[in-house]
Design a protein that fits this description.
InterPro entries: FAD/NAD-bd_sf, HpyO/CreE_NAD-binding, L-asp_N-monooxygenase_NS-form. The protein is an alpha/beta fold. It has helices at about 10-25, 75-80, 95-110, 170-175, 180-185, 200-210, 260-285, 290-310, 315-325, 335-350, 355-365, 370-375, 380-400, 405-415, 460-465, 520-540, and strands at about 1-5, 30-35, 115-120, 125-130, 135-140, 140-145, 145-150, 170, 190-195, 215-220, 225-230, 240-245, 420-425, 435, 485, 495-500. A hairpin with a 2-residue loop joins strand 4 and strand 5.
């Protein structure tokens, strides 16, 4: 019998176990026991738990959600078709509904799969090597396992950044964790300041308005569909989002114009070729500082081509400036966040010429799958890494903003005078102000502001200090091999210890996604386990 411990029971855990179950179909005599450590029900985990408020909706097209397997062939959309209403908002269904789909697939695995799966509703606190085995520690038990997989996702419950003001509330407790005591700490009529102005902040805004009885009237804004907010009476008097830039995320269009897809296709091949050359370079000699410059020139060329196709009167310099600074040069005076949101929605519907932000969002999201593959585990120079983080932060804001229904609600709240957005340095205080840290735990396991070894949890801190895992300079995530196997402090494979998803962010990119096809490590991990078990069975037979 082989025993496996999965630390974290969210979607990445589910995908890995479904792949393992499918791979073991031709070996019915092999016995594999899996314990899933997660305080929340597995499959959905904390972020997708089924008890979160209904106003928290999916931020991406649900067609990417696929937890199908030999046990159930249905993707989320196929599963959802049995209950869908066909309304506009059904294009971005409640996250609790997505969690229900994921939880059902896990329950099916546990009840009908070939794996013996048990959920341990506790948090793992430590992992220690015991010869060829791993000892798992939690508040309740200490057990030994042959294999351990780290899939802790978004980190700890109730996360607050190290610089949080005293008394501030964690956003997750108001939203996905749905704690009534935290809700009561934000009374009706209060003034709320959110430290953050991205997707997590939007969740808090909608929970404190729509989630408290506010409703939306459909209206026309100069011929374009818009919303008007109708207060429910229990919302705060004001909600102020704050960030370093004071710039809202660019709303995603519902569909990308076909003529841009024709431009993106050849650039996808170019990014793949760049990645192949870069990986060859890494294997044979020290990296050249000019290689990342070549990638940025390639992406800039794509953005210029998209601008020309859309008839946007933008120069290469306009696009270069937006990439480097995150700020458009198109307007002489900086528009308000509400004006920027409105402009983005009009661009999405062809009522305005595309902005640099809109074009960069198209390029980054359109080439993202190829970029993730090309940049995976490359060797960075210090300057390359520094530049990439600046550019990528700007591009993430432009490419992966809210869907249109959410953006329309935010705009309605701006227009109603309830919602504001300011730069963090300009945000004023108030005696009646409630402060909410509207941020998620950083990806990876090491906060860059902390000393080496000061991980995001005791579990990772112990592994790092014991030399069982490695984190490269300037990065936050665990370095792994292509099958998820952790690399140890001396750069060797630490067999039987794997990590998938957000704990590996930086060496591999883009883990904050439900797109099962974007990262193949879980599939390769499952194939490794199947090969090992099949080989051990063959030895016994002979």
């Amino acid at each position: 019998m082989t025993r496996i411990a999965m630390i974290g029971g969210g979607p990445k855990c589910l995908f890995a176990l479904l792949a393992l179950n499918d791979g073991l179909e031709e070996y019915p005599d092999l016995e594999v026991r899996v314990d899933v450590y997660d305080p929340y029900p597995p499959g959905a985990g904390r972020v997708w738990n089924t008890k979160q408020p209904q106003e928290l909706r999916l931020n991406v097209n649900p067609r990417i959600i696929d937890a199908s397997s030999s046990l159930c062939s249905k993707t989320f959309n196929q599963w959802h078709a049995r209950t869908g209403t066909g309304s506009d908002e059904e294009a971005y269904p409640p996250r609790a509904l997505v969690g229900q789909y994921l939880a059902e697939q896990f329950d099916l695995l546990a009840s009908q799969g070939s794996l013996h799966v048990q959920h341990r509703a506790v948090e793992a606190t430590g992992i220690n090597r015991r010869g060829a085995l791993w000892e798992m520690e939690s508040a309740q038990v200490t057990e030994l396992y042959d294999e351990v997989v780290l899939a802790t996702g978004h980190g700890l419950n109730g996360y607050l950044p190290p610089d949080s003001p005293e008394g501030s509330l964690p956003a997750a407790a108001l939203t996905v964790e749905c704690e009534p005591a935290m809700d009561a700490a934000v009374p009706a009529g209060s003034n709320v300041m959110l430290r953050g102005s991205a997707l997590t902040a939007y969740d808090v805004v909608l929970h404190l308005t729509e989630g408290r009885g506010g409703t939306w009237d459909r209206i026309s804004d100069e011929g374009m569909e818009a919303l008007r907010y109708r207060p429910g009476g229990s919302e705060p008097a004001s909600i102020t989002m704050t960030s370093r830039s004071g710039i809202p995320m660019t709303p995603k269009p519902n569909e990308r114009p076909r003529k841009l897809e024709r431009i993106l296709d050849p650039y996808r091949d170019k990014v793949r070729r760049w990645g192949e050359e870069r990986h060859l370079n890494d294997a044979g000699k020290p990296a050249s500082n000019t290689q990342m410059d070549a990638l940025w020139r390639l992406l800039l060329s794509c953005a210029v081509a998209c601008a020309e196709a859309m008839g946007a009167p933008l120069t290469e310099n306009d696009l270069q400036t937006a990439l480097q600074t995150g700020i458009s040069t198109r307007m002489s005076a900086k528009p308000s966040p509400a004006e920027q949101l409105r402009e983005s929605l009009q661009i999405n519907h062809g009522r305005q010429s595309p902005s640099p932000e809109w074009l960069w969002g198209t390029v980054w999201s359109g080439l993202y799958s190829q970029l993730v593959e090309a940049l995976s585990r490359i060797s960075w120079t210090g300057e390359e890494r520094k530049q990439f983080k600046v550019f990528a932060a700007n591009l993430e804001r432009m490419a992966f903003g809210p869907p249109e229904p959410t953006a329309m609600k935010l705009l309605a709240l701006f227009n109603a005078g309830i919602l504001k957005q300011e730069q963090l340095s300009h945000a004023g205080g108030s005696p009646t102000q409630v402060v909410v840290d509207a941020v998620t735990a950083p990806a990876g396991v090491l906060h860059l502001s902390q000393a080496p070894g000061a991980g995001a949890s005791s579990l990772y801190r112990k592994l790092f200090l014991a030399g069982e895992v490695s984190i490269r300079a300037g990065e936050r995530g665990l370095l792994t091999d292509t099958d998820g196997t952790c690399m140890d402090a001396v750069g060797e494979r630490n067999e039987a210890l794997a990590a998938i998803g957000r704990p590996t962010e930086d060496p591999t990119l883009g883990h904050d996604t439900l797109n099962r096809e974007l990262h193949p490590e879980y599939q390769r991990w499952a194939r490794r386990i199947v090969r090992q078990l099949a080989a051990s069975q063959e030895k016994v037979v002979h």
